[in-house]
Structure formats: C-alpha cells, structure tokens
C-alpha cells in the first residue's frame, strides 16, 4: 500500500469498504484501521488502552459481541479473522478522530484526515438521499390527493352519464281533465 493515488495514501474505495454499519452507527474495525495506519493491531489497541479517557462511551469505541462478530465474518465471507482470539474493537467516527491524538506518525495523520473526509462525504450523501426521499414522499402525497380528486370527478361523470342514459320518464298528468266529463 505504498503507492499513492492522486496524493492519497489509500484509495477512497478501500477506506469506504472498511466502514460498516453496526448498532446503527458507522464504524471501522481495529484491524482494518491498523492495516491502513500500517501498525500492528495489538499496538493500536495498546495505544487505545493507554488512552481510555479519550474513548469514554460506545459512541467512540466498543467491542463487538460474539454474535455481531459472527455476522460480520459471514457478511465478509471470512472463515477466520486473522487468528484473533476475541471479537475486535470497532471505532465510530468520533473514535477515529480520537485516534488521531494518540497515533502521531505522518501516515496515521494523513490516513486519519482521509478517513474523516470520507465519513463527512458519507454523511452528506445520506443527507442528500434523505432530501430526495422527502421530495418523493411529497410527490406521492400529491399524487394520492390527485387520485382521490380524479375518483370524485369520475363518480360525478358516471352519475351525469347515468342521468343522460335514463332521462326522466314522461309524467302522467294529474288533476282535472276536460275530456273526462
């Protein structure tokens, strides 16, 4: 991974493919981050352990449950996860930002900046997608209202056509008739 692409250390697609959606959050796995930073996973986790105050809650970092770990391996089609003995730690966007404070190599800083930009781009794409969904919902609602209005118009037309097909029959005159005398 030493070849640069457009001034980037790692192609954006590779970084994006290492972002997972777990527990309703976008996260990156410790081993993937270590690979990107070109450090060993155990060294990354040691640095995190020495700086646990930077990762106070699950919105920064958490360890996967065995079930989540199995699901992740199944999704990736991986039979083993590099020989790890326990489920990996995962870092949210905030956690990755905190990693920049404890990993000071030039590569770690550059890769971290790239990861933060990708997280931001993903958030913008999600917001744009949400705006499109809202616009589609508005259009659907308008179409539903138009359908209801068209249905009413067609009912009125049916009533008018029925009246035209079956005009009122001639009435029998009632009252005094001079011929009856």
From TrEMBL:
The name this protein goes by in its record = ORF6N domain-containing protein
Pfam families for the chain? ORF6N
Q: Which residues form the KilA-N DNA-binding domain?
A: 17-102
Originating organism: Pedobacter terrae
Highest taxon of the lineage: Bacteria
For this protein, the record's InterPro entries field holds: KilA-N_DNA-bd_domain
């Amino acid at each position: 991974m030493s070849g640069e692409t457009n001034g980037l250390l790692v192609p954006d697609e590779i970084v994006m493919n290492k972002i997972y959606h777990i527990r309703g959050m976008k996260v990156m796995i410790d081993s993937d981050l270590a690979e990107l930073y070109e450090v060993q996973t155990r060294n990354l986790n040691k640095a995190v352990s020495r700086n646990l105050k930077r990762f106070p809650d699950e919105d920064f970092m958490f360890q996967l449950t065995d079930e989540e770990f199995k699901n992740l391996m199944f999704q990736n089609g991986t039979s083993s996860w590099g020989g790890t003995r326990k489920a990996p730690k995962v870092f949210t966007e905030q956690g990755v930002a905190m990693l920049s404070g404890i990993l000071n190599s030039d590569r770690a800083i550059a890769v971290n900046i790239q990861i933060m930009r990708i997280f931001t781009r993903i958030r913008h794409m999600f917001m744009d997608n949400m705006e499109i969904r809202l616009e589609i919902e508005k259009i659907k609602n308008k179409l539903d209202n138009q359908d209801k209005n068209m249905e009413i118009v067609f009912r009125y037309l049916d009533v008018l056509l029925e009246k035209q097909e079956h005009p009122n029959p001639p009435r029998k005159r009632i009252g005094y008739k001079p011929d009856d005398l």
